[in-house]
Structures are given as C-alpha cells and as structure tokens.
Amino acid sequence: MPSAAANHREDVIWDGAPSMRMVWVRLGLTVGVILVIETVLTSVFGFSGHWTRLLVYMGYLVALPVAVGSMWVRQKSEKYRLTENFLDTTYGLIKKRREQMDTRNYKDSSCTNSSWLQLLAGCGDIKVISCDDSHPVLVLRDLEDYLTAWEHIKMVGLRKRRLVVGSSNENDGAPPSNARRGAAAIDGQ
Length: 189
Hints:
It is a single chain. By secondary structure, this protein is α+β, with helices and mostly antiparallel strands. It has two domains: 12-16 and 80-173, Pleckstrin-homology domain (PH domain)/Phosphotyrosine-binding domain (PTB) (PH-domain like), CATH 2.30.29.30; 21-75. Helix content is 54%, strand content 23%. A hairpin with a 6-residue loop joins β6 and β7. α2 runs antiparallel to α3 (50-76). The termini are far apart. The model is unreliable at 1-7 and 169-189 (pLDDT under 50).
C-alpha cells in the first residue's frame, strides 16, 4: 500500500544548478591576470629577478587552487527545482538551507546575461519576482539553458496566477470572461 508521503510527491518540471562553465571561464580570467602580472614584473625587473619568478609561482600555487576551490564550492552549493506548486532553491554543501517560492505568488520574471563572462560562457541569470514580502526577489544564477528554464518558470507561474485570479473572480460572483471584456472595453476608450 502506498504511503501518504508518496501521494504528496510532486512531479519536477525543471531541475537545474549553476553551470560549471562559469568556473572554467573565471579560471581562464584568473590565469590571464596572473600572466599579465608576470609579464609586467618581468619587463620591469628583468628576466633574472628571482623574486619576480617567486611571486609568479606563488600566484600559480596559491591563487589558482584558492580561486578554483571557491568558485567550485559556490557553483556546487546551489540547486534549483521547479514543480507545479513551488520553486525550490537549496543552498549549501554541508549545512543545507532551503527556500521555497509558492508559484501562486509569482509576479514576474526576467532573464539576463549580467556580465560579459556569462555572455562568453553562454550562461544567464533568471530573476523571479514574487508577491511574497518575505522573499520578494529570487535570482537563479549562472544557468546554461536559462531561456528554457525561464519559459518553464513563466508558464507555471502564469498558469498558477490565472488559477488564483480566476478562483477569486468566481468567488465574487462575476465570471472571469466578463472581467476581461470589461477591462478590454476600458482599455479601448
């Protein structure tokens, strides 16, 4: 016999996480900066400066693992999941923190490439605006297939919002179609 918890499980419409492409793009940028610093130090102090080479090697041995590690942890610590009723966001590798946005509170969303690094990697951010005052804005960052995810979020959010608006109109006694005709007549004047 199936349990009650199995009956309440929702189907996942979209599942995602920040892209690891951004780690590689940021790593390339970090290596580029170290190479520029190496070139400047070498041209200013000459090829034989032992401390110049030492600084560059320190940059490679310390800065690169720290940069890669922090970027990897940042990218792997977030997970996103869209169901018919909720947009779930999970943060953290060890200590998990979970935020849920009810899709009935969906107000608007937009997708952007907020940096030139994201354009280079083919990634983007989705900003979801909610009617909920406790968490009015949720940003899903560094998504590879952000346009598809944005379409799914918009579709579910608008469908749920229509259901909520439609049910409130039916409770008032006026059918939703009359409200739409009245609004169209006002807009046409």
